Amino acid sequence: xxxxxxxxxxxxxxxxxxxxxxxxxxxxxxxxxxxxxxxxxxxxxxxxxxxxxxxxxxxxxxxxxxxxxxxxxxxxxxxxxxxxxxxxxxxxxxxxxxxxxxxxxxxxxxxxxxxxxxxxxxxxxxxxxxxxxxxxxxxxxxxxxxxxxxxxxxxxxxxxxxxxxxxxxxxxxxxxxxxxxxxxxxxxxxxxxxxxxxxxxxxxxxxxxxxxxxxxxxxxxxxxxxxxxxxxxxxxxxxxxxxxxxxxxxxxxxxxxxxxxxxxxxxxxxxxxxxxxxxxxxxxxxxxxxxxxxxxxx
Length: 298
Known about the structure:
The protein has 298 residues and is mostly helical.
C-alpha cells in the first residue's frame, strides 16, 4: 500500500483534529466578546458612562497564557511518550470543563482558575493535534499546519455572527459556550475511537550525552517574533470591541470577522507561496512589516 492510500484512512481523524482547533479559536476569543457580561456577573465597578469596568475580565483572559506556560512542560513529553491521542483527549476534556463552567463562575478568582484550565487545554491540543496532522500529511506537513490556523480563523470569523444570532433571539450569553462545549465533547468521543497514525515513542537512553540548546542570533529573532506576533494577536482578539466602539461601529463585534478574514486570505497566500518554493524567511519578514504599518495606521 502506498503512502497516500495509507494516509487516507486517517482523513476522518484529521477532520476531527481540525474541529478541536475550531473550538480552540472560539475559546481563545469568546470571553473578549462578552467582557461586559462577565464584568456584570462578577460585580465589577460601574463607570461614569454606565458600562462596567472590564479590567478584571481582561486579567482573567490573560490567565490563558499562564495556563499554556504551566502545561507545556508536561504536555510535550506526555504526547511524545504516551501518544498523541491521550494529549488530544486531555485537551478536549479541559476545554469542556472551561466552556461548561466559566459562565457559572461565582467570582473573578474562579474565572481566573478556569482561564488557566483553558490555557492548559490549548497546550495539550498543540502538542497532540499539530504533530498528528504532520504525521498524517507527511509530504505536505507545512500545508497541514496551515490548516490548523485556518480552522481557528474560520471559528473566529463566524463567532460574531453567532453572537448576533444569540442576541437577536434574546438567548442567554452562555448559549455559545454551552454549544461549543457540546461540540468538543462529541469530537472527543470520536477521537477516542478514530485511528491515529503511528509515531516514534521517545525513549531516554541511559548514558546518552545531553543535548544543549543553542541560541543562535536567528533563534533569538524567531523567539522575539513569536512573542510579539502572539501578543498582538491576543490583544487584538480581546480588545477589538473597544477599538470598534472608538471608531463608532454600530456592531463592534464584527471587527473580529474582518480580522479573521484577513488571516484566512494570508493563509491561502502563504500556502501558494510555499508551494512555489518561496523561502519561509521572506514571508517572516514581509508579514510583520505589513502588520506594523497597519497597526501604526490604526
